[in-house]
Amino acid sequence: MSRKGLMEQDLSKLDVTTLHPLSPEVISRQATINIGTIGHVAHGKSTVVKAISGVQTVRFKNELERNITIKLGYANAKIYKCEEERCPRPMCYKAYGSGKEDNPLCDVLGYENCRMKLLRHVSFVDCPGHDILMATMLNGAAIMDGALLLIAANESCPQPQTSEHLAAVEIMRLQHIIILQNKVDLIQENVAINQHEAIQKFIQGTVADGAPVVPISAQLKYNIDVVCEYIVKKIPIPERDFVSPPNMIVIRSFDVNKPGYEVDEIRGGVAGGSILRGVLKVNQFIEVRPGIVVKDESGGIKCTPIYSRIVS
């Protein structure tokens, strides 16, 4: 173990053929499952990600001013369970940021001396809910292994983007969905029960038919431990191939170079996405496709791959 409480990752000593998505050497530092947050605008998608991971995914100035997600947001979280079997559910499940050590102490009263076991390292893809940002949401859906469908309890169900996002993940053949009935702290019990029935009626015949519906308050972090338990038990870890040549799907990228940089100071860019197979290493040479896309003289499309090197 390193002094930070994380497993060492030394590829010169690791046998990649023996690794799987739940290997301690892997999930200590790397998320191995992608879970998206989908649903109508202002139903609490970013808030629930923050409640689980502690990370604020709404970062850009125009997002903060309007209090909506515009670009895809990302946050990693580790989900633990107390190793003491007598520790009561669902409090025995706990989520922290990805920098947390692998075996922290349990914080449930009476079990403070017990250690917790790392069960999942999750990467959350926080999708925008506004109708004009559906293309951005579809980009995020391309890498999802499961989804949290947020439905605000203080509004009628379904709202327009609730239906559209559910249809989108159905097209993507996403099988594993957990429905979160958010903002239950704002309504009376009978209203919550009536809306729960409306949700069940709405999901009949869809890919979410039979999915668990968890009442939560993301703002107050109520029932977040239940959400963690359902993520562990209801969303299976996908098969990951660490042996084949690496292949990564990129869903966003951005430039880290400041205006006025000299040519020899240019450092390239940052790509975000999901590694579909293989392992990427520092100093490894990669090919980015389609690369530079231009129109030729005849009006046809010409793609020139970009060749680069991983620096971090």
What do these coordinates show?
The model has no long low-confidence stretch (mean pLDDT 87). By secondary structure, the protein is α/β, with parallel strands linked by helices. It has helices at 24-27, 45-53, 61-66, 134-141, 160-171, 189-203, 224-234, and strands at residues 33-39, 73-82, 93-97, 116-126, 146-152, 177-182, 213-215, 247-255, 269-277, 285-295, 301-309. Helix content is 21%, strand content 28%. It has two domains: 16-234, Rossmann fold (3-Layer(aba) Sandwich); 247-309, Translation factors (Elongation Factor Tu (Ef-tu), domain 3, Beta Barrel). The two termini are 22 Å apart. It contains seven helices and eleven strands. A hairpin with a 5-residue loop joins strand 10 (285-295) and strand 11. The chain is globular. Helix 4 runs parallel beside helix 5 (160-171). Strands 3-2-4-1-5-6-7 form a seven-stranded mixed beta sheet, with helices on both faces. The chain has a two-stranded antiparallel ribbon with strand order 8-9. This is Tr-type G domain-containing protein. GO terms for molecular function: GTP binding; GTPase activity; translation initiation factor activity; tRNA binding. Keywords: GTP-binding, Hydrolase, Initiation factor, Nucleotide-binding, Protein biosynthesis. One of its GO terms (cellular component) is eukaryotic translation initiation factor 2 complex. Residues 30-239 form the Tr-type G domain.
Radius of gyration: 21 Å
In one word, what is the shape?
globular
Topology as a string of helices (H) and strands (E): HEHHEEEHEHEHEHEEEE
Quaternary arrangement of the chains shown? single chain
State the CATH class of the largest domain: Alpha Beta
Low-confidence stretches: none
Tally of discrete structural domains: 2
Mean pLDDT: 87
Q: Any idea what the CATH architecture of the largest domain is?
A: 3-Layer(aba) Sandwich
Number of helices: 7
- Give a count of the beta strands, DSSP E runs of length 2 or more: 11
